[in-house]
Amino acid sequence: MRTLGVDLAAATKKTAVAVIEWGQGSARLVQLALDVADQEIVELFGATDMTGIDCPVGWPQALIPFLTGHLEFDGGPVLAYDGIEGRRLLAYRDTDRFVTARTGLIPLSVSADRLAHPAMRCAVIQAKIAALHGPQPRDGSGKLAEVYPAASLKLWGLAARGYKGRGTTEAERLSVLLESLRGHAPWLDLAGHEERLAGSDDLFDAVVASLTARAAAVGLTAQPDDVHAAAARKEGWIHLPTSGLNGLVGLGG
């Protein structure tokens, strides 16, 4: 099995990909790149078995009638979301609330934060993938799963805060986090990319996304139950690991 992890940004220069090849009890990082354009992502999707993308693959369902009502001067759908609780339904998806309940982390809003820009790009990439390989279910039941590296790291018992950025403190934390990942997953061969990973949180998150893609592919992530299934199909579903890292190579845990 080969898994692709994508740390998607609005611009290509901050977009990273990582491909991991999985064997019996081991895995090897076989491709790592930064400054990645849409076409390369689409091509890598077609050449791998499962893709984990660190970006929302959809928007809150409530946002559609709200925006349509506003566009058409129809006050009913707009007033239905009056107040802070209504605005939360416009800002956060069902899966975002699930992640917060499960991990304590609050994902960025796809409709009310800068995350909207990468999400627009992600929608275009999904359309390009669909044109070549067929539409991919937004709940992750196909070959494309939405992932959230910070949540994956936390659930795997790794410190997941304060490593993003270009300051000295952030760089030190990223180096410590990389060493911690190597300690928790000694079976993962980083193929000499340690220095690059320690110097780029984008590359590091792409590796975590690829690891989470493996978890999704082998059924080791939380699936939407009957309560969440309908929303997951339309809005997307963040795949949270349900086993330790060793479970990814069949070592238990």
What report would you give on this structure?
This protein has helices at residues 38-47, 63-71, 75-79, 83-91, 94-103, 116-133, 149-155, 168-184, 194-198, 201-217, 229-235; strands at residues 2-7, 16-22, 27-34, 50-54, 144-146, 188-189. 45% of the residues lie in helices and 12% in strands. A six-stranded mixed beta sheet has the order 5-4-1-2-3-6. The model has no long low-confidence stretch (mean pLDDT 96). It is globular and about 60 Å long. By secondary structure, the chain is α/β, with parallel strands linked by helices. A hairpin with an 8-residue loop joins strand 1 and strand 2.
The succession of helices and strands, N to C, reads: EEEHEHHHHHEHHEHHH
- Gyration radius (Cα, Å) is 18 Å
Q: DSSP strand (E) fraction?
A: 5-15%
Helix proportion of residues, in percent? 40-55%
List keywords for this structure.
single chain; 253 residues; alpha/beta; six-stranded mixed sheet; 11 helices; 45% helix; globular
List the helices and strands and how they pair.
Elements lengths: L1 E6 L8 E7 L4 E8 L3 H10 L2 E5 L8 H9 L3 H5 L3 H9 L2 H10 L12 H18 L10 E3 L2 H7 L12 H17 L3 E2 L4 H5 L2 H17 L11 H7 L18
Parallel strand pairs: 1-4, 3-6, 4-5
Antiparallel strand pairs: 1-2, 2-3
Helix pairs in contact: 1-6, 7-10
